[in-house]
Amino acid sequence: MLELVVYGIVFGSIISLGAIGLTLVFGIIRFANFAHGDLMSSGAYFALFMVTGLLSWIGVPDTTFGSLSFGWRMLIAFPVSMFMVGCVAIAADRILYRKLRNNKSSPVMLAMSSLGVAFIIRMLILIFWGADSLFYRPGLMRPALELPLGVKIRPDQILILFVVFSLVVLLHLYLQKTKMGKAMRATADNMELALVSGIDTERVIILTWGVGGALAAAGGILYGIDVQVHAYMGWNFLIPLFAATILGTIGNMWGALVGGLVIGVAQQVSTAFLLSTYKPAVAFMLMILILLFRPKGIFGGKQE
Amino acid sequence: MEISGLIAYLVALAITAGIYAVFCLGLNIQWGYTGLFNIGIAGFFCVGAYTSALITLPTPTGIYAKYVHQLFGFNLPFIFGLFGAALVCGVLAFLIGIPTLRLGEDYLAISTLGIAETIRLIFNNEKWLANGARGLTGLPQPFEGLVDPKNYNYIYLLVVIFVLVVIYLLIERAIRSPWGRVLRAIREDEVSAAMSGKDIFNFKMQSLVFGAMVMGVAGALSAHSLKAISPEIFTPLYGTFIIWVMLIAGGSGNNKGAILGAYVIWGVWIGTQLMTDYLPYTLKARAPYIRFLVIGVILEIILIYRPQGLLGEEKKVSTMLE
């Protein structure tokens, strides 16, 4: 059981990366981005393309670091994929969402458009890679470390936790200390007020997409390292992402982190009682409970 | 292809598009007239189809009972299946509405999405309910003894068109009544509708339930058209996404547009199939993905360049006012 909690924290930290991006987009651009899960998949597949294709073609050696399951190739692919998915998210905004905003379309239309983007990304993945589960490194021995109390954990998983928490701390510093970060927070609080205070809100929007996309890519790749890469992985992440975002109060970065961990642990622990295919349903049930009893999330103010 | 084969093909297309048109009418009540963002149509599709299947199939006996598990089997006529599907979907919509309709539209969207996925998981995993992933087969069809099975589709087309027309007239009647005007008022401006003394939650709930019941009927029609159902049919792609594209393409808030959109997009879908037939062999296995990509791109183009759809919303409020 303790082992499931630990795995849940690892899985939850991956959900958190997606949920933080989702909550930023939700808070600043104010619509539900249904493509966020598929942004995670696109990150995982960008990295897959680089690790198994581009970088091996260039001749980057396929060695691994110590007992981790990846090496130089992944170290290069990771930041590049984050950057690329950031660009994909920005491109979707420039090509589609910005036009809809300028047309004065309702947020629902934007959400519909993002659902379309989700399907387009998934179909592209399916066209190029097919529907099979893929791995960054096939057929690998995965030595487990033994923690106290008999918890077995892979070195990869410890690294995943480390990466997630470094990214969250970096983002926190960015939002708190830099001018652009402050502008993002101001826009999240009140877009009109930010606009009249001379903040370039279009730039803030671009940056939000960039950050959200990059974090989603990181989450997707880490999931690929931990489990596998699959065309439908992003879709399966979508409900946990929204559950985490709502649980942690929309727009609240730390809330999304906590929400992600809670949902991740709940999903993993549920496998002790339920079939593991019910994991998305567990996230959904939690979300419904939150909506019933505390619709503004754990960090939200009192209900009116 | 000889001419009779072509006609049979067209009849089969018309049946499927007609069933999708019923779905679009249901969605149009929720989205087109009330502004409810339901992206879990696949859930109502699934529940409607399975409800009707369980009501019309007999309880398996003898050797079948070993291989086919189902919660019950009433062996009732087709029409009971349709009404049963509507009833169960209505109850389901009511339950979803309770926690979500007081909140913003995004919450309803996510909740309906979640319920659709959950329902599919339940039908896939719970073998006792409706035979799990293997699904149910041998669904009865109305009037099936009357003609040669080869020509049966003509009869089913008439059944689908009959149901479509009845539902169309029903919705047109409802939407032009004072009740329909309240729904549109809620869609346009919830606060001012509330200030006029309208109980927003109640009206939204009625719209959600009414739309879901229509979807349930469509799900039942679909089940008896396919004659065999399994959980994999009710994926978000076939069950939800394409129906949204149909309604938006035809024109939300216009029942004729909903029906037109269903036929047009289904035509495009079939047209892309004919196109992908010319693809090289290696790409053939991935043809459905290419076709869905086309549908996705069409949606994005419509959303930006023609958000009102082909027909757009009718301005007419009452048949008395011309």
Count up the domains of chain B: 1
The overall pLDDT of chain B, averaged over residues, is 86
Strand fraction of chain B: under 5%
**Cα-based radius of gyration of chain B, to the nearest Å:** 20 Å
CATH architecture of chain A, please?
Orthogonal Bundle
Which residues of chain B sit in consecutive blocks of at least 5 with pLDDT less than 50? none
Alpha-carbon distance between the two ends of chain A: 39 Å
Q: Tell me the overall shape of chain B.
A: globular
The total strand number of chain B stands at 0
Helix content of chain A: over 70%
Characterize the overall form of chain A: globular
Distance between the termini of chain B: 48 Å
Largest interface comes to: A-B, 42 and 40 residues
Q: DSSP helix count of chain B?
A: 14
Counting DSSP H or I runs of 4 or more residues, the number of helices of chain A is: 11
User: How do the helices and strands follow one another from N- to C-terminus of chain A?
Assistant: HHHHEEHHHHHHH
* Largest beta sheet: strand ordering of chain A: 1-2
Instruction: Characterize the largest beta sheet of chain A: strand count, sense, and whether it forms a barrel.
Output: 2 strands, antiparallel
CA radius of gyration of chain A: 19 Å
Number of strands of chain A: 2
Description:
The complex is a heterodimer of chains A (304) and B (322). By secondary structure, chain A is mainly α. Chain A contains 11 helices and 2 strands, in the order ααααββααααααα. Chain A has a single domain, classed as ABC transporter involved in vitamin B12 uptake, BtuC (Orthogonal Bundle). The N and C termini of chain A lie far apart (39 Å). Chain B has 14 helices and no strands. Chain B has one domain (3-236). Chain B has helices at residues 3-33, 41-56, 64-67, 78-100, 105-125, 127-130, 152-175, 178-188, 190-195, 200-226, 236-250, 255-276, 281-284, 287-305. Chain A binds chain B through residues 31-32, 34, 96, 99-100, 103, 105, 107-109, 111-113, 115-117, 119-120, 123-124, 126-127, 130, 235, 238-239, 242, 246, 275, 277-278, 280-281, 283-285, 287-288, 291-292, 295, and chain B through 35, 37, 39, 99-100, 103, 105-107, 109-111, 113-115, 117-118, 121-122, 124-125, 236-237, 241, 244, 248, 285-286, 289-290, 292-293, 295-297, 299-300, 303-304, 307.
